[in-house]
């Protein structure tokens, strides 16, 4: 129990700082949305939305799921050099996929009915490649627990990208191409910085085992990611085909507001995975998976209630009157409560990925994507945007139920029945709020209720932290060296990559003596149990940084 609480304390402690950093940046970027919708016309905003959908498809092929494979290589197999070698493989892959997509734009643009928007599509290709490379680098920075550098790279690819794109639209030319060009410029800067602070190591023929292991794990993530794309983005393509660019722009605004909890859950899931990969004891891992899932469910209650209360107010700020925001509240609530089954399916996905069962997750996600497409084709022509939102909700409910059935073999304890009833009540209340007649009084009451849910959220978060803080000290991982000693140039690092140890699976935990330069921050269950042994430093070489001290509190 103590080890479990220690891990959960870290999941909601330092590990969640990565999600918090992303949350601040996402909110800052989102605050620019009202300006964007007013500077760009509806058709231009619709073009950006369609180009973004293309980017996300190409992003899957350019990244090939290597972000998670990098984290697994580092944490599960204790192979830092292998993780850096996968960065090298990802660099070659993104360049190759981007080049192929760039030169074949005329061949597939017509099939997407975007033949007259090839310039926007080429920007989308570059956006996808640079974003994929940045994401893989962020995966390694997360495993290294280099919070400052993680924040700098993600700040470039989110806030700076949005600000630069908006600046070009406002002061250069109000077109989709200008907006996409700003995004690409910032993404390239973020990708370059990621390669500098999380540099690649040469991947040679004798290291084929590392790449084979990574591809066996990551390749099933490609159809899973494509299916997730279909779940989250294909509805906009169907809406554009059925209802036009203006309708897809209105739906995109509503979806941006309502999907923020799902976006944060996705980021949190990525931030948590290194810890789950590092827990080798299966019983302990199952316990931590269950505890973290239920804690997230408890936090979802005030999140759903708060977003449901504040949605009409946010919509009026987010979009001008031409978007008819007063008619989008029910759409927002349908997408909003999708966060509940989304949180559940992420919990099961974490279980399957920690067990290496990425293939099972891919098959189930593909089935859910087919359900989503079928429902959208049937409901959008008849019910419009509301039918599209309902199709998204139904598909994620199906995905959660199917994954639960597949993941039963992991024997993760189920959530308490009382907690499930509370989630059902929160979803019902959110849907009911969509039918409240809006006037000055109700909007004021919504603002007050939204502030109350924020206090509720903080109280639940503090309670969860208090329940697990007692054993927090026992699960603190070893500190990484000072950030100023870690900023390396890509070229010299590649040349010196041979000094990073390459410990294969059969050799893990076998060696008790390693060079001091091999010390990197680990997320390993040995930190919780106290069974680890301090690595010795050769006396023939001086240490490159001052002696490290243990963290003093939950935040490190």
Automatic annotation (TrEMBL):
Residue stretches spanning the membrane: 20-39, 45-66, 86-109, 121-141, 148-172, 184-205, 253-274, 295-315, 327-348, 360-383, 389-407, 419-437
Primary localisation category: membrane
Bias type Basic and acidic residues, positions: 519-528
Topology class, membrane: Multi-pass membrane protein
Sorted UniProt keywords: Cell membrane, Membrane, Transmembrane, Transmembrane helix
Ranges in a coiled coil: none
Region forming the signal peptide: none
Localization of this protein: Cell membrane
UniProt-listed Pfam families: Polysacc_synt_3 (PF13440)
Pro residues compositional bias, start-end: 540-556
Nucleus in keyword set: no
Protein's name in the database: Lipopolysaccharide biosynthesis protein
Organism: Paractinoplanes globisporus
């Amino acid at each position: 129990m103590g080890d479990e609480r220690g891990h959960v304390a870290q999941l909601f402690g330092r590990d969640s700082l990565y999600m918090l950093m992303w949350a601040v940046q996402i909110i800052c970027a989102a605050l620019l949305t009202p300006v964007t919708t007013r500077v760009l016309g509806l058709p231009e905003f619709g073009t950006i939305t369609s180009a973004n959908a293309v980017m996300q498809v190409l992003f899957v092929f350019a990244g090939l799921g290597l972000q998670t494979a990098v984290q697994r290589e580092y944490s599960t197999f204790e192979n830092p050099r292998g993780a850096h070698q996968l960065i090298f493989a990802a660099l070659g892959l993104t360049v190759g996929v981007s080049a192929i997509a760039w030169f074949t734009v005329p061949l597939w643009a017509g099939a997407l009915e975007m033949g007259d928007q090839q310039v926007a599509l080429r920007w989308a290709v570059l956006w996808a490649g640079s974003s994929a490379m940045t994401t893989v680098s962020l995966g390694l920075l997360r495993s290294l627990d280099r919070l400052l550098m993680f924040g700098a790279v993600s700040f470039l690819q989110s806030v700076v990208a949005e600000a630069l794109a908006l600046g070009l639209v406002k002061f250069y030319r109000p077109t989709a191409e200008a907006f996409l060009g700003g995004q690409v410029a910032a993404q390239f800067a973020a990708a370059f910085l990621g390669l500098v602070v999380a540099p690649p190591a040469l991947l040679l023929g004798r290291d084929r085992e590392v790449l084979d292991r990574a591809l066996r794990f990551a390749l099933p993530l490609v159809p899973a990611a494509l299916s997730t794309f279909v779940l989250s983005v294909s509805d906009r393509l169907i809406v554009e085909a059925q209802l036009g660019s203006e309708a897809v722009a209105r739906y995109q605004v509503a979806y941006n507001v309502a999907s923020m909890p799902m976006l944060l859950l996705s980021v949190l899931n990525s931030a948590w995975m290194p810890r789950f990969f590092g827990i080798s004891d299966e019983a302990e891992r199952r316990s931590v998976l269950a505890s973290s899932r239920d804690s997230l469910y408890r936090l979802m209650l005030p999140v759903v209630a708060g977003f449901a209360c504040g949605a009409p107010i946010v919509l009026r700020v987010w979009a001008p009157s031409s978007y008819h925001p007063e008619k989008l509240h029910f759409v927002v609530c349908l997408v909003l409560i999708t966060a509940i089954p989304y949180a559940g399916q992420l919990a099961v996905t974490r279980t399957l990925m920690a067990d290496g069962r990425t293939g099972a997750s891919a098959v189930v996600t593909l089935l859910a994507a087919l359900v989503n497409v079928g429902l959208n084709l049937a409901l959008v022509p008849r019910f419009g945007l509301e039918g599209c939102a309902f199709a998204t909700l139904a598909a994620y409910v199906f995905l959660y139920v199917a994954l639960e059935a597949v993941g039963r073999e992991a024997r993760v304890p189920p959530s308490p029945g009382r907690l499930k009833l509370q989630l059902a009540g929160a979803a019902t209340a959110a849907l009911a709020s969509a039918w409240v007649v809006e006037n000055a009084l109700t909007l004021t009451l919504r603002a007050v209720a939204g502030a109350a849910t924020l206090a509720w959220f903080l109280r639940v978060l503090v309670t969860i932290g208090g329940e697990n803080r007692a054993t927090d000290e026992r699960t603190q991982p070893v500190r990484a060296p000072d950030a100023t000693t870690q900023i390396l140039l890509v070229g010299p690092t590649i040349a010196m990559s041979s000094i990073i140890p390459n410990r294969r699976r059969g050799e893990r935990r076998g060696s008790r003596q390693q060079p001091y330069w091999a010390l990197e921050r680990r997320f390993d269950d040995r930190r919780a149990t106290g069974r680890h042994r301090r690595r010795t430093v050769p006396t023939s070489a001086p240490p490159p940084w001052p002696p490290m001290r243990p963290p003093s509190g939950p935040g490190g």
